[in-house]
Amino acid sequence: MFNCRQIAEMASRSLDEKLSLWQRFNLIMHVLMCKLCRGFLRDIRRIQQACQQLAKRINEDDCSPGSELSQEGRERIRTAVRDYTRKNDAGGREE
Ligand SMILES: [Zn+2]
């Protein structure tokens, strides 16, 4: 049985790579019983979705009206997002 810390690590990892069936099973079983981890999992999924939406908007060059971002700031964010999505596409994890 995994503890909360291991579940948190696994949940974070699940955003970058596919978990094995066994890992997924343990994650689900733990989350069903543990309110804390359930909340954590929900939060990181929400953050992931927000990042994906932001990346999509930046790629479409559709920044919100009245945005105070300079051209340079925008370019920096775009580069960071591109690097991030490229890293994710490669399935690699740097650590
Ligand atoms: Zn837990």
| Approximate shape | elongated
Q: Between the first and last Cα atoms, what is the distance in angstroms?
A: 25 Å
Q: Which regions are unreliable across 5 or more consecutive residues at pLDDT < 50?
A: none
- Judged by helices, strands and strand pairing, the structural class is mainly alpha
Number of domains: 1
| Share in β-strands | under 5%
- Please count the helical segments: 4
The main β sheet shows up as: none
Order of helices and strands: HHHH
Q: What bound compounds does this protein have?
A: zinc ion
Tally of DSSP β-strands? 0
Task: Note the topology.
Blueprint: H1 4-16, H2 21-33, H3 35-59, H4 71-90
Helix pairs in contact: 1-2, 1-3, 2-3
Would you mind describing this structure in some detail?
The protein has 95 residues and is mostly helical. The chain has one domain. 75% of the residues lie in helices and 0% in strands. The chain has four helices and no strands. The chain has helices at 4-16, 21-33, 35-59, 71-90. The longest helix has 25 residues, at 35-59. The two termini are 25 Å apart. The model has no long low-confidence stretch (mean pLDDT 84). The structure holds zinc ion. Zinc ion (ZN) binds at residues 4, 7, 30, 34, 36-37.
